[in-house]
Amino acid sequence: MRILLFISALLCNLNLCLGQTPELKKEIEIIVGGKDLKLGFALYDFSTGKSISINGNDRYPMQSVFKFPIGVALLDCVSRGEFALSDSVTLTKADLLPDLWSPIRERWPEGVRLPLVSVMTYMVAHSDNSATDFLIHKIGGVARIQDIVNRLGAKKINIRNNEAEIQGSWSVQFDNWTTPNAMVDFLRLMNDGKLLDKANTAVLWEIMASASSGSVNRLVPKTVTFARKTGYSGANSQGIIAAQNDVGIIELEDGRRVAYAIFLTDSTLGTDAGYDILAQIGKAIWKAYER
């Protein structure tokens, strides 16, 4: 009797795994259906190897999502002995440009000396633009960062400009682009330990899991971990939001993981409505894998 019950439960779980991805895709299409925006979405289930995508090969501006591959490039330099995360670095007042979002500048307007890992945390977890441009310069510029992520296996992740350049001109953001499928592939490389060694992968995971921005996990229990990076363009004079993005890896209560990439572009709905959509998609993913 116990064996029959076990087999029944196993088949039930198998059916859930095999059936959930098409249903999830339909639910996400319903969430964005009829709304004035374009969605790019990709998901990969590490447990089953199944994936889904919506406009998965189309290009989307990354905005601050590019801070994730920059963090990978920095940690690759650390693994090669160029830097140590414990190194103390100085951000001067000149590094903390007044027109860029910067929690570091808000706290230390005259400049500050911090461990390198703290600057990286400000960049990834708090999306600090001044920290980003400081680290881009330290690594050796956007061209070197592009070379590093390409060497590590990135495809269709295009990094051409720093934050000062992106924020200085609306059109420049479109030069820093990726596709949902490409970003999920990069997240898969991270999760599988193919980007970085074990120690640096753990550092990156912890920082991404502490991210303070975004709303994709707003409707999901706190026991579910979202290790993620967001990106947001703001609206132009026509009220169009070019990027309201969220990418990352979800770790469920039972340890299973799912990589996802959500890109919203050409939206006229407003910021709050965009965050509501991200939250609904996050909840839909969680519900699809809830046991």
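That was protein one. Protein two is written in the same sequence-then-structure order:
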Amino acid sequence: MAGTAVGHHDGSMTDQPNVDVRDDVERQAFVAVLDDGTEAGFAAYRRADGVVTFTHTEVPDEFEGQGIGSRLVAGALQQVRDDGDRVVARCPFVHAYIERHPEHQDLLAA
């Protein structure tokens, strides 16, 4: 599994945990993994013909409010970009994230 570490890197103390975003190809999901190995959320997708279609994102209740979902999507989108693929955002959370972060809108498939 490839991984992208996503976290708060300005040197300040924060209560947000470090998140490693991994592409679990067998599950067809990008997974947010904390430093202790705990899975803290996932973004399910379908991949075909260079397009990654995000279908559902889920962060368990105990991890909500910690920015994990946003960091999960940011890491997933970076990996899609690195692979040279495009995105279809069927998942409302991914769609809203891309709307709020126009630097990712160039990934959207026509």
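The chain is about 25% helix and 35% strand. Keep this in mind for the problem set.
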